[in-house]
Design goal:
Elements lengths: L1 H8 L5 H7 L2 H4 L4 H20 L6 E5 L5 E5 L12 H6 L21 H6 L1 E10 L2 E8 L2 E3 L11 E7 L11 H14 L5 E5 L2 E5 L5 H7 L8 E7 L4 E9 L6 E6 L2 E3 L1 E2 H10 L6 E9 L11 E2 L2 H17 L4
Helix pairs in contact: 9-10
Length: about 325
């Protein structure tokens, strides 16, 4: 009884201590998957500056000391609910799916506070109200900057994941490249670059999902691809289809640039393709202002209206034009 009483009197952990004490609750694991999830959360937040029209290009650089530098040619980082950068770095944000079809969403919907909390050191340079600002943190706590940062255009976020938290801090260029390439396929306006030493890759896909099919080994000239606004679902849908003579099927699906396992968008694709589903390689991407999911993993879309909209669009395009 005394132990229960003392436990009840134990004060709750502050946000920083909570994240550092239970990192798996925020990044899924402290292994390689969690490490890359942390970096990609910062990448996705930066990509959102482009999708919102506040920047044009994003560069991700893996540094020799294990740190990551993410830069864009805008002014700063703005959270989905409009919080400025100081607020984002200082406290946990509510974890929810942003009500904005333009937002690219990370697997664990991390804010920059979590990136800061799980970093050995983080520095940021940005502009706010026209003024150049620099901040530095160590283990999530404010720290003195190592030295003045040069006045330059754009914003820069540099952080080194904490080796005391993660089992490994070795980042895979290829793992990060896969996600950047995927984001570029799903968002034609993105212009992304990933660099590590002498190695560099540029990701830009004006062909959208048609380019994605080519990456999967399909002939884009034989593909059917279309994109359209859908007021009935408060969003947009984009579909790319390629048919072969074989029996195998492959379907990739996304909601707000987030990969999904299944859902009403996939069901709609199957409904619309009907008997032509065999031998199909298909990609379906919907971007919604109000995405709803089945289960806590948020990888099965549950918006019922999406099914009928996708089905009707696929059936109509299959009827109107053959594969081109």
């Amino acid at each position: 009884m005394a132990e229960s009483y003392e436990a009840a009197r134990t004060p709750p952990l502050g946000p920083l201590e909570a994240v550092r004490k239970r990192p798996g609750m925020y990044v899924g694991s402290t292994g390689g998957r969690g490490l890359h999830g942390l970096v990609l959360a910062a990448v996705d937040r930066t990509v959102n500056e482009v999708l919102a029209g506040r920047a044009r290009t994003v560069q991700v650089t893996l540094l020799a000391d294990g740190a990551v530098r993410i830069t864009h040619d805008g002014d700063t980082w703005t959270s989905p609910e409009g919080a400025d950068l100081d607020a984002q770095l200082a406290d946990l944000e509510p974890r929810y799916w942003p009500a904005d079809r333009r937002a690219a969403v990370s697997r664990y919907d991390l804010g920059l506070f979590v990136v800061n909390a799980l970093s050995e050191r983080l520095t940021v340079r940005h502009r706010q109200h026209g003024e150049l600002r620099t901040r530095a943190f160590e283990f999530g706590e404010p720290a003195a900057a190592a030295g003045p940062m040069a006045d330059s255009d754009g914003a820069a976020l540099t952080f080194r994941p904490d080796p005391g938290i993660f089992e490994t801090t070795v980042l895979s260029f290829d793992t990060l490249a896969d996600r950047l390439r995927e984001l570029a396929f799903l968002n034609r306006e993105l212009d992304l670059t990933l660099t590590e030493g002498e190695r560099s890759e540029h990701f830009r896909s004006p062909g959208g999902l048609r380019d994605y099919l080519a990456h999967l080994g399909c002939d884009p000239a034989d593909a059917l691809a279309f994109e359209q606004d859908e007021p009935a679902i408060a969003g947009t849908l984009e579909v790319a289809l390629h048919r072969s003579d074989g029996p195998d099927r492959r379907v990739l699906s996304f909601v707000n640039s987030f990969p999904t396992r299944h859902g009403t968008h996939v069901e709609g694709l199957i409904d619309g393709a009907c008997t032509r589903y065999d031998g199909l390689t298909a990609i379906v991407s919907v971007k919604l202002d109000d995405a709803r999911f089945t289960g806590p993993c948020r990888d099965v879309l549950d918006n019922e209206a999406v099914r009928s909209c996708v089905a009707a669009a696929v059936a109509r395009h299959l009827e109107e034009g053959a594969w081109r």
